[in-house]
Design goal:
alpha+beta; 2 domains; eight-stranded antiparallel sheet; three-stranded antiparallel sheet; 17 strands; globular
Length: 362
């Protein structure tokens, strides 16, 4: 089979490489370097508002308001210690989600709103996520659905179970033996074209050493099994190639490129922002929620425990989970901000090399 496969050239558009991204980029788009994603969101919304009227303008103005609230909560949290810090960060992340929902024209101000999450009485570490109902707007369930995973029934999730689904602290969870085997598989993705430059195909490249670290047999499962075959062999690598090639021309190249990104959105691929850009991983366990939803859920838990359950808060801060809680609170809000900013703007927002921030230590 591999002898029949052509090598393929890196796909270009106007001399720029077509890159895989979790954001809905346009063909040839490059990174946006920013140490202040809040200003990007603000500027983007202001520009949209200046060109809008009526109901569309109302949604955008509401999004701008929620973005401003989110920024204030984030900045206020910088000088506060745990457990109070988690409360401020939850409200920052929640209002950033409300900004995103308003941008997507989800009505919030004139209807009853519910976080969509609660901590059942008599439980320790349990969070319940409710599905959408006809009673107002369920913020969490709506957010999860917009990111690609619909909540069809109540989910009861333990904090320990939830936190291992957050990519940036997954390695720490493994080191602390909260999980037996890693479930995040590091990958590289290449968008390629044939020698005639009229058909796209993609390859996922994995280091051979991952065979000993994760359950590689789970890669070709679910939607990925239908999409991939073995790719052209590379030394020291495992390669999977898309079964189908997509024809393109100058007129439709952007549409075809974005269709590829849409295809990949079904494969449980999660990003981590580093000081060299985004790295990508396949979640081999088919999670029930998007990774950003897990981040919001975990911060809801920490923020709510801080306000209402002092004994449980003390257990978290003095027990074996303290390193996980601390790492999560230090890393995840910025990951959440940069990634949601990228999704909202449909641009890939990354940290500049020259920016000295906590993000640069990831």
């Amino acid at each position: 089979m591999s002898k029949l496969l052509e090598k393929g050239d890196i796909a270009l558009f106007k001399y720029n490489k077509l890159r895989f991204s979790f954001a809905n980029l346009k063909a040839g788009d490059q990174h946006i370097l920013t140490s202040d994603p809040w200003s990007l969101i603000n500027s983007h919304l202001q520009q949209k508002i200046s060109k809008s009227r009526g109901e569309n303008k109302t949604f955008l103005e509401r999004a701008l308001y929620f973005s401003s609230l989110a920024e204030s909560f984030y900045k206020a949290a910088n000088s506060i210690l745990l457990p109070t810090r988690a409360t401020l960060l939850y409200y920052g992340m929640l209002n950033l989600v409300k900004c995103f929902l308003s941008y997507k024209k989800i009505e919030l101000e004139t209807v009853h709103e519910h976080h969509g999450l609660n901590l059942p009485l008599g439980t320790n570490g349990q969070i319940q996520a409710k599905p959408k109902s006809n009673e107002g707007v369920n913020i969490f369930a709506t957010f999860s659905e917009l990111l690609g995973k619909k909540i069809n029934h109540p989910l009861n999730i333990n904090f320990r179970q939830a936190v291992i689904n957050i990519p940036e602290i997954h390695s720490l969870c493994h080191s602390l033996e909260l999980i037996n085997k890693r479930k995040l598989l590091p990958i590289s993705i290449e968008i390629l074209c044939n020698s005639e430059h009229n058909k796209f195909f993609t390859e996922v490249i994995i280091d051979n050493e991952q065979k000993t670290k994760v359950d590689m047999g789970k890669f070709l499962k679910t939607e990925r099994q239908k999409y991939f075959i073995n790719g052209l062999p590379r030394e020291g690598k495992i390669v999977y190639r898309s079964k189908r090639r997509k024809s393109f021309n100058k007129e439709n190249i952007n549409t075809i490129y974005q269709n590829i990104l849409k295809d990949y959105s079904k494969f449980d691929i999660v990003p981590i922002l580093t000081n060299t850009g985004y790295r990508y991983y396949v979640d081999l366990k088919n999670p029930e929620l998007p990774h950003l939803a897990y981040s919001l859920l975990c911060m809801f838990y920490l923020g709510t425990v801080a306000r209402y359950r002092p004994n449980e808060a003390n257990e978290l801060l003095e027990g074996t989970l303290r390193p996980v809680v601390s790492e999560f609170v230090n890393l995840s809000p910025n990951q959440f901000l940069y990634q949601l900013c990228s999704i909202l703007l449909e641009k890939e927002c990354v940290v500049p090399f020259s920016s000295i921030t906590p993000m640069s230590t990831i």
